[in-house]
Amino acid sequence: MIVNGVLFPSSLANLLAFLVDPDHGDYSYGLLLFRQVQNASSTYLWNTIIRGSSRNGRPTTSIDLYGELRVKGLRPDSHTFSFLFKACALALDLQFGKRGHGEAIRFGFESDTFIADSLIHMYSVFGRLDDAKRVFDGMVAKSVASWTSLVGVYAKVGLVDDARRLFDEMPERNVVSWTTMIRGYSECNREMEAMFCFREMMSVGVKPDSVALLSLLRMCARLQNLDLGKWVHQFAYKEGIEMNDRLAVSVIDMYSKCEDVYSARRVFNDMPRKNLVACNSIIDGYCKEGKVEDARLLFDQMPTKDLISFNSMIAGHVQSGQYKEAWTLFCDLRVTNLKPDSYTMVSLLSACANMGALDAGKIIHSFIIVNLIETDVFLGTSLLDMYAKCGRIHEAMLVFGSMTQKDVLAWTAIISGLAMHGRPKTALDHFAKMQRAGIKPNDITLVGVLTACSHGGLVEEGRLHFKQMQDTYLLTPKVEHYGCMVDLLGRAGRLKEAEELITSMPMEPDAIIWASLLAACRTHNNVFLAEMAAKKLLDLEPHKDAIYVILYNIYASMGKWYDASKTRERMENAGIKKECGRSSIMVHGGVHEFIAGDKTHPRFEQIQAMISEISRQLMVAGYVPITSDVLLDIDDEEKEHALFFHSEKMAVAFGLISLPANVPIHIMKNLRVCRDCHSALKSIAKVYNREIIIRDRSRFHHFRGGLCSCNDYW
């Protein structure tokens, strides 16, 4: 056409309209063609390119083009303003939208229905109810679109009842009107009314379209209502509603969030084009069901990935305990053009917290600061939780103090952290501050509060907070709260009260309840209650080794060797083996794990020499091994030797020969620290002037200067 000189205005307009159509055109070529037109003065051409830019996902270009049109002195028409207001809504540019509104009035279009509809829609996007209502009230002839847009504004600002009253006043309604009302109910968490509205729409003969079903599917995904979601999917199939990409993705997302990844995958497989959003939904669904390998297979096959893809996959690895894979994937993310966000950081901090990987957690914290990632309340809570679980409660408190916003999760995290670190009174002080700040505690907060009372032996305070759960906070105690109270009473030696509390529980006691009572019986040598608790535990968890071990230890410590041997015999006949105590320490980025008496470590000879030196130094300092903890038929010298090769002592010895003198020794243990190790570690901390931090399965122990943070109440 160009070569033959037949590019007339009419043919140019048709060609441009074709090129900027997002379904089958080529926007870049269309924009280039428009720029080549000399002295383009046709408003129709300008309108075509302004509208086409927005439809191709470039609303800011539409706004810029409108500015060029005005600079050239061309007069916009009603279509120009309509397309401009839609572009402002897409670009979230309210300021330019209001400027355009003023220009539309100056050009005499204030009563134009077409422009008014677009204006109300634009103001609805920004939730500007007063502006939208002012435009609506000024309209001479109100269209269905204007009524619908105003209904949408009311719903958007949370006035869903006012939206319904306006909806009922509408002289005419179409499928968009009904969909707007359904979406309003759904977004205000009024799901039943959304469903009633959907049924009402069908009863008056209005056939729902894919947009109406999108609102219902999003609601089902949010509620994790699989049955309703399946019904919506089947309805779309029966009614012959086209399964376009948006609808297919919503169906996949619904199934994934409802943890029916098999159905999600079937819909995904039927899609002719697998888009990025659909792939991300499937990956998220696989990860939620624990099928991380399937998720990773799909992830690796994806030709393109966005940040959501990486975040979902990293979170999946973390939730499955695959921390190394999560960290490796984060390294892969960093070499792309994608920038990690707060969601990425939260997953990685969770991994560090679970591993007790303080050094890695510090690297993530530095990354957040250097890359100016906004530390919102969610990320701040993850940071303080990481420091608390890595043994650095002081740093956790600093992070908490620096947070400008604190929600119930942040307060709960710091209260629980202080409780686990043996600072019960500080934990309760923070609980009081939380109440003064007007933050209402939840049931998890009260678990932290009761744990603090239990670890500090604060029996009366614990009773008070347990009572206030229902009286003050209107929270019904759950089995976890009863477990904390049984632990509190048991540690304090009030075994009869603990038993009475268990019998008065409104729900069936679980294994944790009976395990708490059994542990207390071990501490206070109550054989009768121990036997009862063990029997209840064996009914619930017949293959749990700890039950047999504690019962054996109680019998042995009281000299009831016949009962002890019978307990061991039952354990052996059931094929149950005692779980080995394992202690791990991170040195120079590597994790070193020790088992009692294990000689496989490459530096075992040095560790053995260090243990011998520790033994000599402790004996000089007056340490006396608690050989009664070794319930074996061997002489005292052999018992002392066995005690010094417990896993935590081996880990401490390795820390002493591997870490600088000013670096605290951090150790993680899978079981509780035994009495002898606890006594020895206090002496080691004093003799070697080192801080030793041990995280066992129930709490933290900070050893400094011959003392422990638990005050020997553990």
Tell me about this structure.
The chain has 714 residues and is mainly alpha-helical. Among the domains are: 406-476, no CATH class; 498-579, Serine Threonine Protein Phosphatase 5, Tetratricopeptide repeat; 586-708, no CATH class. It contains 38 helices and six strands. Strands 2-1-3-4-5-6 form a six-stranded mixed sheet, covered by helices on one side. Helix 3 (43-55) packs parallel to helix 5 (78-91) and helix 35 crosses helix 38 (675-687). The model has no long low-confidence stretch (mean pLDDT 89).
Itemize the secondary structure elements and their pairings.
Layout: H1 9-19, H2 27-36, H3 43-55, H4 59-71, H5 78-91, H6 94-106, H7 113-125, H8 129-137, H9 144-156, H10 160-169, H11 175-187, H12 191-203, H13 210-223, H14 226-238, H15 245-257, H16 261-270, H17 276-288, H18 292-301, H19 307-319, H20 323-334, H21 342-355, H22 358-370, H23 377-389, H24 393-402, H25 408-420, H26 424-436, H27 443-456, H28 459-471, H29 479-491, H30 495-503, H31 511-524, H32 527-540, H33 545-557, H34 561-573, E1 582-587, E2 590-595, H35 604-621, H36 636-644, H37 647-658, E3 665-669, H38 675-687, E4 692-695, E5 700-704, E6 707-708
Parallel strand pairs: 3-4
Antiparallel strand pairs: 1-2, 1-3, 4-5, 5-6
Helix pairs in contact: 1-2, 1-3, 2-3, 3-4, 3-5, 4-5, 5-6, 5-7, 6-7, 7-8, 7-9, 8-9, 9-10, 9-11, 10-11, 11-12, 11-13, 13-14, 13-15, 15-16, 15-17, 16-17, 17-18, 17-19, 18-19, 19-20, 19-21, 20-21, 21-22, 21-23, 23-24, 23-25, 24-25, 25-26, 25-27, 26-27, 27-28, 27-29, 28-29, 29-30, ...
